[in-house]
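Sample log: ATP/GTP-binding protein.
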Amino acid sequence: MKRTKNTARPRVLRPGMRGWLGRGRGESFYVQAADEWRGTSVQVCGLWPFAVGAGTPMVGVPLGRHIHTGATLCCDPISWFQRAKLISNPSAFVLGKPGLGKSTLVRRMATGLAGYGVMPLVLGDLKPDYVDLIEALGGQVITLGRGRGYVNVLDPGEALEAAERLRAAGYEKEAAQVLADAHGRRHTMVSALVTIMRGAPPTDREETILDRALKVLDARHNGIPVLGDLLRVIQEGPQEVRAAALDRGDQARYQAITENLEASLVGLVDGGRLGETFARPTTNPMRRDRPVVYDVSSIDDTDMDLQAATLLACWSAGFGTVNVANALADAGLEPRRHYFVVLDELWRALRAGRGMVDRVDALTRLNRQRGVGVAMISHTMSDLLALAHEEDRMKARGFVERSGMVICGGLPGAEMPQLTAAVPFSRAEQDLLIGWQDPPAWDPAAGQEAEPPGRGKFLVKVGGRPGIPIDVQLTEVEMGIHDTNKLWHTVSRIGAMATQGSGVA
């Protein structure tokens, strides 16, 4: 019998996906992710064509790393609008529960944009969260509050000087436009203050009276007027103002028509809920060539009317300064400047009274034409939709719908129907946001709460595209500037010192 040769290959032992099984053989129950590096096509040209492409844009301010892939995300509303062409409106709306890092995210954007040459304007800092940052950038800090600083709502700011420069250069039409814008801004602010005082907007007739009285005041007053000067014009009743009031030549009728308006202005001039914050000359005029923050942190949270009125005054002054800068740049008298405007705690202003949504809408709707990027910050959609009137709620929801990008931190599950009505979110994205708002766990080793699971984590949404989940990572320098717990670094020893001084053991 002929014997056949066995040609079968010997069996080769191979480890499994997690290594050699068995004791002492190196089996791993956790497979670590491979290290990743990013390089330019020049540095890693030998790897072309790339096997896997980066899924996040690299245009703008570096915000953090993608939670799942580790890729860096560069993102800010101005860069994505101006350079990347990813959004049609240079604005961002930031939503998230308190303490999860909304202000930190916006500070990172402001820091990076300042490096690109964009001026950060923080028009109302209630914490304060941005004062140290603006000081580090060499900017201007304007402090407002009872007895700490005043902002004159009738101050045209730099509009008068800009109009003179434009006339001297032969731009008569542009000079008239600058003055008309300043007039409209002051009229809007006086109406807004009256709205806050009453809880309802002034009537159409009162709006007309205010407009005519401001024009009379500008024609007759030398220097910068204050609210007391406007009140005197209405009380004196010049012919132009009486014609706007339709008093039919009857003094008693004129006094009856203007009585409520006069009472509201008296409350603004002589104290009342809003004090004298807006009735005195401006203590620290805003400049257009430096980063600026209005520090309103001294106003207590319980004083919501004053907070809302101050925020509106800051926003009005800020956008007025932007208009002046644009007019001078259009005429070639100054270089073009772009601004990154931060509107924090938006919900406080919206709740101040009927008509406040219209005021905010007028200030923020034309940001693309004004050459500014805007970041609006609030806690939840419920804050925007908790207004008393349906038309105000619809307009407030429009702030989110019109934003070029919506950035969300941790949010409760009850917010999802309202949020998805404005911006489409998948079920997985909603679950991610709900998980980020969970309370922190207790660390028994340290004897304190661990860091909240959603701190520093955000989902960037642009239209109907899938959201980009990121983890914002700060540098050591930023951690020092962004520290909001400075008052707690030193342990109080007053009790111990008092005990030692009294000789008690």
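Observation: The chain is about 40% helix and 10% strand.
Observation: The radius of gyration is 29 Å.
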